[in-house]
Amino acid sequence: MDFYQGLTYSPKEIRESETFVLRSSNVKNNEIISSDDIFVDSNVINVNNVEKGDIIVVVRNGSKALIGKNDKIKEICLILS
To answer: In the chain, where are the structural domains located?
Structure first.
Protein backbone atom coordinates (compact mmCIF):
# COMPACT_ATOMS: atom_id res chain seq x y z
CA MET A 1 0.00 0.00 0.00
CA ASP A 2 1.28 3.45 -0.91
CA PHE A 3 0.34 6.73 0.72
CA TYR A 4 0.49 10.06 -1.12
CA GLN A 5 0.02 13.52 0.29
CA GLY A 6 -1.90 16.10 -1.68
CA LEU A 7 -1.01 19.16 -3.67
CA THR A 8 -0.05 22.48 -2.11
CA TYR A 9 -0.84 25.61 -4.08
CA SER A 10 -1.21 29.33 -3.43
CA PRO A 11 -4.16 31.60 -4.26
CA LYS A 12 -2.16 33.20 -7.10
CA GLU A 13 -2.03 29.79 -8.84
CA ILE A 14 -5.83 29.40 -9.00
CA ARG A 15 -7.26 29.58 -12.53
CA GLU A 16 -10.70 29.60 -14.17
CA SER A 17 -9.82 26.26 -15.74
CA GLU A 18 -6.73 24.04 -16.21
CA THR A 19 -6.12 21.30 -13.66
CA PHE A 20 -8.92 20.32 -11.28
CA VAL A 21 -7.92 19.93 -7.64
CA LEU A 22 -9.84 17.54 -5.43
CA ARG A 23 -10.37 19.09 -1.99
CA SER A 24 -12.14 18.09 1.21
CA SER A 25 -15.16 20.15 0.11
CA ASN A 26 -15.52 17.79 -2.88
CA VAL A 27 -16.04 14.77 -0.61
CA LYS A 28 -19.51 14.44 0.90
CA ASN A 29 -21.34 11.38 2.20
CA ASN A 30 -18.58 9.11 0.83
CA GLU A 31 -19.00 10.50 -2.69
CA ILE A 32 -17.08 12.92 -4.88
CA ILE A 33 -19.27 15.91 -5.68
CA SER A 34 -18.80 18.97 -7.84
CA SER A 35 -18.93 21.77 -5.32
CA ASP A 36 -16.74 24.81 -4.93
CA ASP A 37 -14.37 23.38 -7.56
CA ILE A 38 -10.85 24.77 -7.81
CA PHE A 39 -8.53 24.69 -10.80
CA VAL A 40 -4.83 25.53 -10.65
CA ASP A 41 -2.06 26.39 -13.07
CA SER A 42 -0.90 23.09 -14.55
CA ASN A 43 2.73 24.11 -14.01
CA VAL A 44 2.40 23.81 -10.21
CA ILE A 45 1.33 20.16 -10.29
CA ASN A 46 3.91 18.13 -8.37
CA VAL A 47 1.82 15.07 -7.48
CA ASN A 48 0.27 12.25 -9.48
CA ASN A 49 -3.38 12.05 -10.44
CA VAL A 50 -5.38 9.68 -8.33
CA GLU A 51 -6.42 6.55 -10.18
CA LYS A 52 -9.65 4.62 -10.43
CA GLY A 53 -9.95 2.42 -7.36
CA ASP A 54 -7.76 4.62 -5.13
CA ILE A 55 -9.19 5.48 -1.73
CA ILE A 56 -8.94 9.08 -0.59
CA VAL A 57 -9.18 10.21 3.02
CA VAL A 58 -9.13 13.77 4.32
CA VAL A 59 -6.31 13.73 6.88
CA ARG A 60 -5.77 17.44 7.46
CA ASN A 61 -7.94 20.50 7.21
CA GLY A 62 -8.74 23.67 9.11
CA SER A 63 -11.86 21.97 10.47
CA LYS A 64 -11.65 18.82 12.58
CA ALA A 65 -15.16 17.94 11.40
CA LEU A 66 -13.78 17.31 7.90
CA ILE A 67 -11.07 14.86 8.97
CA GLY A 68 -11.88 11.30 7.96
CA LYS A 69 -14.14 12.11 5.00
CA ASN A 70 -13.42 9.50 2.34
CA ASP A 71 -14.36 7.95 -0.98
CA LYS A 72 -13.17 5.42 -3.51
CA ILE A 73 -12.21 7.08 -6.82
CA LYS A 74 -14.52 6.01 -9.63
CA GLU A 75 -12.86 7.85 -12.53
CA ILE A 76 -9.42 9.19 -13.41
CA CYS A 77 -9.44 12.98 -13.52
CA LEU A 78 -8.51 14.31 -10.11
CA ILE A 79 -5.57 15.85 -8.31
CA LEU A 80 -5.53 15.74 -4.51
CA SER A 81 -5.28 18.90 -2.46
So the answer is: 11-80
